Amino acid sequence: MQFALIDESRYAEEMSQTVMPALAACCDEGWFDPSDAEREAGLTPLAPGADPFASSADGSAAHDGKLHYLCYDVTKFANLREPGATAAFRGAVVLSHGFTEFAEKYSEMIWYFLLNGYSVCALDHRGHGKSARDMDNPSLVWIDDWRRYVADLAGFAQTLGRSYADGQPLHLYCHSMGGGIGAAVLERYPDLFDKAVLSCPMIAPATGMPNWLARTLSETMCALGMGRSRVFGQTDFDGTLDLGSHPYSSHARERWYHQMRCAHAEYQTYSAAFEWVRQSLRLSRAVLDRESCAAIETPLTLFQAGHDVWVLNEPQNRFVERVQAGGGSARLVRIDDSEHEIFSMPNAVLGPYLDQILEFFAEPISESV
């Protein structure tokens, strides 16, 4: 590693005084219209629906139905001459975040990609961040069809991602729900990305019960017209941070993410509607289809956490095995002492994780296959 990780003892100070100003200096913010990509995937674009932020001061009413993104130009970043930054331009990374997350949460990871010569294009998935909403309650996430997530991400990568890659490699970095979406993109758009990292991907969610039972329950609730209702036992975001539920993570990082969430109402998604659960389980079944796994041509590395309570590990194993059986290049890396968000772990875990990602992206394609 040619650059220094952020000092956890001075984390908030370094993020606020160094990282965030540098990111702001090279960031292009915009709204992506997913209509064409959705039509090409056989989906009817959704009409603008409920949006709890439609009257906000940032003019979000003018972006009905569109998806918010942050794109970071490594050429502009290089002009800042940050210590440890490479002079090489290595292409672009498309970033796909997890359930109830938002693109800006990944500011530290984006910083490291920029230091290593990659532009970064990060999309707020539908129902998340500043993107189009379909629910009055800003804490609740709903989606009508998992294929919409897939079409949106693919369309974003084909346009903004390729533009920022500028003829150089285009890679994918995705986490949790974003990893399940990313896996489906790799199956349906096999020549879109040069490399892909799936970090604790939601190949199958952990629902708190056997997933066959969760599938039956969610299908039943949706059939009864409860698809937009909150899943039992979940609540609105209330601003509470329980560090006791993150015994292995970097508490400095957890506090930073939480403060960012508290400061922005758009970042306070927190619970699932029954339709989201139904679609996540349908996504899982589709991603694990043997023929779909065999269609993957993009070399991929899947990182698995030993203390993951949000997604299931065994389906990740099956996914990698099926990609390999179909002739694809897939590697599984298990990090025993990590929670679900490996990028939130202490530097002792984060450093080797980053090293492996960057080495994988830098390998010639022939060595990854």
Write up what this structure looks like.
With 369 residues, the chain is of the alpha/beta class. The protein has a single domain, classed as Rossmann fold, CATH 3.40.50.1820. Strands 1-2-4-3-6-7-9-10 form an 8-stranded mixed β-sheet, with helices on both faces. It has a two-stranded parallel sheet with strand order 5-8. Helix 4 links the parallel strand 3 and strand 4. The protein is globular, with a radius of gyration of 19 Å. It starts with 10 loop residues before the first helix and ends with a helix. The relative contact order is 0.14. The mean pLDDT is 95.
The percentage of residues in β strands lies in: 15-25%
CATH class: Alpha Beta
Q: What structural class do the secondary elements suggest?
A: alpha/beta
User: What's the mean pLDDT score?
Assistant: 95
Number of strands: 10
Number of helices: 13
Order of helices and strands: HEHEHEHEEHEHEHHEHHEHEHH
Taken from the alpha-carbon principal axes, the silhouette is globular
Total count of domains: 1
- Helix % is 25-40%
Span of the ends, CA to CA: 24 Å
CATH homolog superfamily: Alpha/Beta hydrolase fold, catalytic domain
Biggest sheet descriptor? 8 strands, mixed
Q: Residue ranges: pLDDT <50 for 5 or more in a row?
A: none
CATH architecture: 3-Layer(aba) Sandwich
Question: Gyration radius, to the nearest Å?
Answer: 19 Å
Q: CATH fold name, please? A: Rossmann fold
What strand line-up does the widest sheet have? 1-2-4-3-6-7-9-10
